[in-house]
Amino acid sequence: MASGAAASSVLSLLLLAAFAGSARAATFTITNNCGSTLDPGQTWTVDVPAGTQSGRVWGRTGCSFNGCSGSCQTGDCCVALSCMLSGQPPMTLAEFTIGGSQDFYDISVIDGYNLPMLFSCSTGVTLNCGGSSCPDAYLFPADNTKTHACSGSSNYQVTFCP
Length: 162
Hints:
Layout: E1 5-15, E2 24-32, E3 43-49, E4 54-66, E5 69-71, E6 93-97, E7 102-108, E8 117-121, E9 126-129, E10 137-138, E11 148-151, E12 155-160
Parallel strand pairs: 2-12, 7-10
Antiparallel strand pairs: 1-4, 2-3, 4-5, 4-6, 6-7, 7-11, 8-9, 8-12
C-alpha cells in the first residue's frame, strides 16, 4: 500500500463480518497487473479469519495519498487508505460469502466498472470481467444467475488487469 505521497491506484480488501477466532476461513491471493497503477505486478496474500461471513475486493484508481489520508477517483474510501466500509462507485467488485460446506462468489458491476478482473475459487470456475457489460458479472440487481459455488474453505485468486 502507499506511504507518503502517491498518485496512482491502491487495491482494497474489505471484510464485512464479525471476526471470531484465529483460524483461517480462506486465503485470497490478489495480484495487480495494471501497468498504470501503484505497485504493478505486486501480489498480496490475505488469510481471511474464521468467522468472516462475507466480503468484497476491489481496485481503486487515480489515488493520491499523504500518509493514511487522501482520495481516489474510483473506489474511494472517504479519505482513508485502509477501507473499513465499501468504496465509492464506480468499482468492479469481487464478492464472496464463506463458511460452511459451500462458499459462494461473484463479480458485480451493478454500481459501475473501473478495472478488468479475474476472480476464481480453487474448486470452482474462473470469472472474467473485461468491461462494463461483461457476461460473467452481475449487471443489475435482479440479475440472479451470476453467483458460483465452490467447496467450503477454498482459496481464491483475484487478478486486476489480467
